[in-house]
Amino acid sequence: MFTPITGRSVVVTGGSKGIGKGIAAVFARAGAHVLITARDEAAARRTAAEIAADEAVTGRISAIAADVSNEEDCERVALTARERHGGIDVVCANAGIFPSTPLVEMTAADLDAVLGVNLKGAILSVRACLDALTRSGNGRVIITSSITGPLTGFAGWSHYGASKAGQLGFARSAALELAEAGITVNAILPGNVLTEGVAELGDGYLKSMAASIPLGRLGTVEDVGNLALFLATDEAAFITGQTFVVDGGQVLPESLDAVAG
Prior knowledge:
Elements: E1 9-12, H1 18-29, E2 33-38, H2 41-52, E3 61-65, H3 71-85, E4 90-93, H4 108-128, H5 130-136, E5 140-144, H6 158-178, E6 184-190, H7 196-199, H8 203-211, H9 221-231, E7 243-246
Parallel strand pairs: 1-2, 1-4, 2-3, 4-5, 5-6, 6-7
């Protein structure tokens, strides 16, 4: 039985849909007070209302519009979390975009957009919350990276893969810098998780991906959220600078022939 995180303050960037929504819901059901961010304020508010309507939710949840690639927006998110919840205990740097762009067609603007949200956005989000995380005494930083980039590649996502690999470099160095303040920094590397964005890639993609996963299915947003919750507990206080793959064994086989069945 883990020590409850009831009443702790959690910021989830990119929390209006997909993995971020799943992380926010898991924390809210565990009794944490959650602030979700998204560039689309209406979408963020709808998600917050949907999660709050769950009878299993015991924590407060609210929303704010923010672009994590903008320094002022990140500072405003941190201020809002402190005002609403009295501080910040956990930052889930989850916001990310993954447009498919072949390298030969990629523009500097395409690159700036992906790196700005995925890499710069993660760094700015964490930096804005550092004072509150230090004061918490239970400071946790949890970054949503990906298997794509750090472990695998996918054609058309070279900028995405670079941003996700970059997040791990940030996490390891930040873990060293923040250890003295008792703040842990860890990263989750999801494989193929069934989100709205992945569903849009079509049935053919979903079937081919499920066939490449030894456990025979795509992951759920709760699979990622549950790991994030564990990393926020007191029991995970001695874990920092680490990466955790949540992919159903997807990176294990050397070919589809190696997957049983």
